[in-house]
Q: What sequence folds into this?
């Protein structure tokens, strides 16, 4: 395990709270534990904002949760999940010295608002900051009622800390086009600040050569599966959450980055993104 001074150095360098850096550090090792667990590694597909941060863009906003689509429904069982994470806690402790107390491993399996089954997990950890009192926790969101349109990929996990193992850390995750399509679908369903930030951020960065036709085709299949319309700028503009989206911009995102860009810049650029998505504008 790295020491507290390394966490503080990253905190000063990036302009973020030390506990945000510590959580990012622990996230990397929990991902390593999942990928190295022989019962779940093949069937847990990493996705969402933390996937973007850890597997695609090191400079992306810091994210706090681990989101997975499970391809094996039998894994959505409370006892199975707790036992797997007891194994992972031992593996992580032996590899790093990070403590994940077994009594602080909690999973709740429930019926989500789509009528399918999901699970929410929370695990406590004691990392380099060695806090007194209640331990900080990581949150895991697990779902089985999601459609995987494209083949998952195995990618390196960004772990810029001095204890990165030889060969690095890896994770099985959504491919880039699937992450992009999933984020647009999420924006269409709920219009949360992080979804707007994510889709515009992905649109701005061309390093991965985003394929508009593949993204649109994937989005269409995801929307069909969710029984919602493929979003356009008009539908996004007319949703009742539009005012709340702007009002919550700073509250939801400011702590995840050193400098929060203006909401209006992202909302304006969303129009261009939607034109590009539907083939009316070429980047």
A:
């Amino acid at each position: 395990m790295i020491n507290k001074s390394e966490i503080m150095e990253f905190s000063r360098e990036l302009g973020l709270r030390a506990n945000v850096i510590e959580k990012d550090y622990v996230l990397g090792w929990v991902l390593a534990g999942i990928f190295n667990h022989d019962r779940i590694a093949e069937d847990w597909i990493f996705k969402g904002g933390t996937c973007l941060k850890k597997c695609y863009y090191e400079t992306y906003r810091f994210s706090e949760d681990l989101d997975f689509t499970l391809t094996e429904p039998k894994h959505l069982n409370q006892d199975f999940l707790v036992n797997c994470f007891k194994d992972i806690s031992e593996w992580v402790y032996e590899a790093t010295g990070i403590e994940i107390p077994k009594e602080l491993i909690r999973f709740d399996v429930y019926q989500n608002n789509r009528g399918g089954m999901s699970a929410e997990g929370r695990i406590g950890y004691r990392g380099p900051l060695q806090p007194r009192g209640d331990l900080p926790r990581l949150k895991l969101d697990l779902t089985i009622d999601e459609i995987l349109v494209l083949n998952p990929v195995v990618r390196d996990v960004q772990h810029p800390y001095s204890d990165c193992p030889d060969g690095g850390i890896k994770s099985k995750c959504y491919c880039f086009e699937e992450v992009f399509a999933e984020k647009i679908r999420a924006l269409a369903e709920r219009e949360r600040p992080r979804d707007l930030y994510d889709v515009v951020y992905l649109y701005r960065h061309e390093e991965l050569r985003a394929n508009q036709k593949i993204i649109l085709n994937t989005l269409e299949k995801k929307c069909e599966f969710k029984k919602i319309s493929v979003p356009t700028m008009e539908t996004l503009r007319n949703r009742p959450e539009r005012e709340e989206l702007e009002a919550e911009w700073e509250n939801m995102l400011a702590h995840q980055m050193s400098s929060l860009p203006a909401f209006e810049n992202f909302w304006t650029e969303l129009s261009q993104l939607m034109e590009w998505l539907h083939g009316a504008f070429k980047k």
Q: What stands out?
A: DSSP finds eleven helices and seven strands in the chain. The chain has a mean pLDDT of 91. Residues 177-277 form one domain.
